[in-house]
């Protein structure tokens, strides 16, 4: 049961991570939008892999599609602001580090994250996440794809199934 809950938590984390700037989105929400460079508006494809506390791959190449504009990019960056009691964001230019302590449904989580902005259309992320169950390592490649797909609204996130976009949520939707 514990492993099942952990996998559910990982899936939720991957969804948020892949949607925007990974843990900067979901855990490091105290960041002001100006602290991290703005991404290009449009369709973003994120490919995320997660290694669990035992060193085994928990998820590999989980792909998420996100439609952003300047307002929703900021919303993704600020979405977890009430969950972090400690947060340090440092860096400039292309390289940033985020370290923090945040509350999640399963307890306290600490993060160690590195973001590399190759450009406003290409972001690489590496993060170590520590919780009561151990450490998980995450890597994510976030790449701009062009205009959002027909029918997508800024803030939409989801996946591609058989060539069609399947929406899983929108950053502007009320959280239940």
TrEMBL record:
<keyword id="KW-0732">Signal</keyword>
<dbReference type="Pfam" id="PF12276">
    <property type="entry name" value="DUF3617"/>
</dbReference>
<protein>
    <recommendedName>
        <fullName>DUF3617 family protein</fullName>
    </recommendedName>
</protein>
<dbReference type="InterPro" id="IPR022061">
    <property type="entry name" value="DUF3617"/>
</dbReference>
<feature type="signal peptide">
    <location>
        <begin position="1"/>
        <end position="33"/>
    </location>
</feature>
